[in-house]
Amino acid sequence: MSHTNPFTFGALALDKAFTDREDELRGLVADMRNGQDVLLYAPRRYGKSSLVLRAAQKAARDKVLVAYCDLMRTPTKERLAAALARTIHEDIDSELGEAAERASSLFRNLRVKPTMEVETDGTLRFSFQATRRRAAIDDTIEDLLALPGQLAAERKRRVALIFDEFQEILSLDPKYPNLMRAVFQTQPEVGHVYLGSKRHLLDRIFDDANEPFWRSAKRIEIGLIDPAKFGRFIRKRFEATDRGIRDEALTRLLEATLGHPYGTQELAYFVWELVPEGRFAHLVDVENALGQALRSEHSHFSKIWDDAPASQRLVMLALAAEPTGAPYAESYAERFDLPPKPTLQTALEALVKKELVARGGDGEYRIVEPFLADWLVREQERR
After folding, report:
1. Between these two residues, 257 and 13, which has the higher pLDDT value?
2. Residue 169 and residue 176 in contact, taking contact as beta carbons nearer than 8 Å
3. What proportions of the chain, in percent to the nearest 5, are helix, strand and coil?
């Protein structure tokens, strides 16, 4: 019997591909059941969407109605309205009546009426057109945001409304946090889950006493996965597909990724592909797989390097060679030929905003983009 690769990257890791985060998962399921508002922060590719959607699967089994809206995919107000209409119709209201008739009834009081088209799979596609009166679409979005609360009361069911990459609401309209908070305060039966990856924007929304969302949500931050736990997961996945992995190979794999969710799954994927059924992965397989991973990311990393000014390049090279909790220390700056402190501080802050660098729970700044540190070191050795 041939096996498919058990490791997943570039897509949501659900079911068997989901690993660890059990404490966070239990907490999120309880929060959704209880209607608790939650802010979940993690850098990109740390698995927060997989975690929340896994929690949504479990909460749905407890009769919670779960709606999901990805703000990264809604660059205009009209697209936000369409995304809200679709998830409200499909995920909250789907059990009631015929689809088209129910949708028409559900949205009959909106200021801007949606155009509905039936897709080939039978689902409805919603679209909203811009109007001469700009406030009309704002009123429509306000009414759409109010619907989950109305439906929760009507159906006597708890609703969880998930917003992925919530910080993008600021680029859509800086006034929208006020609009949303005004609606959400009237929805005790709806729990709101906000996912985000840009700390400085999330801090602005949730930690500023002058902002409407100030202290309005339970805050959860997820980090790297404990390498020991990830190691057990990887070994089990190999064994379940009639393969094995030597201790030294597993140790090297985890050293290369430091428990980064996306990066570990990616490297494990490449290692698994190199190992025939009935064989073990060895250290050389991990090194070869790491080379494959770096080649697959080369264009992406080259663009990061090309777009970075000289000061940011110097900081990236320093952190790739040696993560530190004291980037402004004179000895560190001299060792890596870093620019003067004001320039260094500006460069470091810019890299944090780009989500290329983060300060971990141990207080150290390090490169967080999977494999970027390895790529930088190898590229420098070639020059």
Report:
1. 257
2. yes
3. 55, 10, 35
- Convert the pLDDT of each residue in 98-113 to its tens digit: 555 666 678 877 888 7
3-class SS string, 288-323: HHHHHHHHHCHHHHHHHHHHCCHHHHHHHHHHHHCC
| Residue spans in the chain of domains classed CATH 3.40.50.300 | 21-221
User: Residues 214-242: what's their mean pLDDT?
Assistant: 93
Q: What does CATH list as the number for 298-382?
A: 1.10.10.10
Cβ–Cβ < 8 Å for 267, 232: no
pLDDT, position 19:
64
Mean pLDDT of 1-18: 71
CATH top-level class of 227-296: mainly alpha
Q: Which two tokens stand for residue 365?
A: 């700044």
Q: How far apart are CA 60 and CA 264, in angstroms?
A: 29
Whole-prediction pTM: 0.83
For the chain, give every residue range classified as CATH 1.10.8.60.
Answer: 227-296
Helices 247-257 and 261-274 cross at an angle (nearest 10°) of: 140
The CATH code of domain 21-221 reads 3.40.50.300
- CA–CA distances in Å: residue 211 to residues 23, 138, 201, 204, 314: 30, 19, 12, 8, 36
Here the tokens at position 87 are: 């998830």
Q: Output the pLDDT for position 298.
A: 94
Where are the domain boundaries for CATH 1.10.10.10 in the chain?
Answer: 298-382
280-281 and 244-245: which strand pairing?
A: parallel
What pLDDT score was predicted for residue 211?
A: 96
